[in-house]
Amino acid sequence: MSGNGQMTSMIVTRDLRKDYVMGTETVHALAGVDIEILRNEYVSIMGPSGSGKSTLMNMIGCLDSPTSGEYVLNGQAVQDLSDDNLARIRNREIGFVFQTFNLLPRATALHNVELPLIYAGVSSKDRQRRAAHALEIVQLADRMDHKPNELSGGQRQRVAIARALVNDPSILLADEPTGNLDSSTSEEIMDVFDTLHENGQTIIMVTHEYDIAARSQRVITLVDGKVEAQMSVDYYLARGLQKPTAAPAAADPPASPEPEPAPSREADPAPSREADPAPTLDTAPAPPPQTTPAPPPTAAPMDPVPPEAAPPTPGTRRPISNPWAPPPTPPADGGR
Ligand SMILES: Nc1ncnc2c1ncn2[C@@H]1O[C@H](COP(=O)(O)OP(=O)(O)O)[C@@H](O)[C@H]1O
Ligand SMILES: [Mg+2]
């Protein structure tokens, strides 16, 4: 954990578990998760619906506490923190972006972005200055006085990103941030993330879509509350993003330095998105995240994630630019 240049661990979890007791049944939402995420990394989390992605994000974001296991955030053992300290970390270190934006419907963009600063006790003048700056970062300086229903879906999500950034968090967590957006608007949001990442922001993003995940550096796949695979994005790019089975069935070479021509990241092969969803009013006028557990997952499509090679041993850190990519075992079939 000792700081060593850029290779600092931002997040380390060891055997992280979360059980939900439902009557006589216990759901093992997280069944022993070991991950490590470095400062300035940009990581996607994928996996079928119900595999524990949101639960993991809620643990990482200190929105909820694990049943057992260790979580070290920025060198601090989160499980040992008092509630007050946890709230402080949540407010200062974590920025959260949700699929449903979660903006206050009757508040202006500026006021929505100010909210976390109100909770942090920042003076009104400072709040406005910082909120305006965050809105500039997402290129909404000219929409500060607009309310959510006067903004497009992409603009609302950019307000939500500005709100997540206003405290200058160590980590930006985004749980299906493009799930409610059409594909060109998704691109717009991904461009914002790219810029944030280029400027050093550590980002963890849940997504169902390979072309979205392809904007990150590394993909962690969850299945049944466990890490099934951790692969560099190059691995997926080299296989045409969403159909790893399209690769030759015979022994795939280990991730080569010169992957075969990958589809353009600009192209949008995602078949699943429809035209712009109706700009419904934000339903959750929630202030910054409380300790409300995530709702049960909505019916989301299964990700066509094939079983892959075992994840690398935690602790064997590799440079970000150098994929984790263990030699993949060719999947027997598409996993769909
Ligand atoms: N608050 C909760 N109470 C009970 N079960 C929950 C709760 N939140 C999530 N779960 C269950 O935990 C599992 C993982 O859920 P979740 O993390 O939301 O999955 P994902 O985000 O990958 O779709 C699912 O079986 C889900 O039903
Ligand atoms: Mg989820």
Summarize the structure in short.
By secondary structure, this protein is α/β, with parallel strands linked by helices.
Structure, described:
With 336 residues, the protein is of the alpha/beta class. It has a domain at 41-62 and 83-246: 3-Layer(aba) Sandwich (Rossmann fold), CATH 3.40.50. The protein is built from eight helices and ten strands. The strands form two sheets. A six-stranded mixed sheet has the order 6-7-8-3-9-10, sandwiched between helices. A four-stranded antiparallel sheet has the order 2-1-4-5, covered by helices on one side. α3 (109-119) crosses α4 (124-137), α3 packs parallel to α5 (153-165) and α4 crosses α5. It is globular, with a radius of gyration of 20 Å. The two termini are 38 Å apart. The structure holds adenosine-5'-diphosphate (ADP) and magnesium ion. Magnesium ion binds next to α1.
Write the layout of secondary structure elements.
Blueprint: E1 9-22, E2 25-38, E3 42-46, H1 53-60, E4 68-73, E5 76-77, H2 83-93, E6 94-98, H3 109-119, H4 124-137, H5 153-165, E7 171-175, H6 183-198, E8 202-206, H7 210-213, E9 218-223, E10 226-232, H8 233-237
Bound molecules: adenosine-5'-diphosphate (ADP) and magnesium ion.
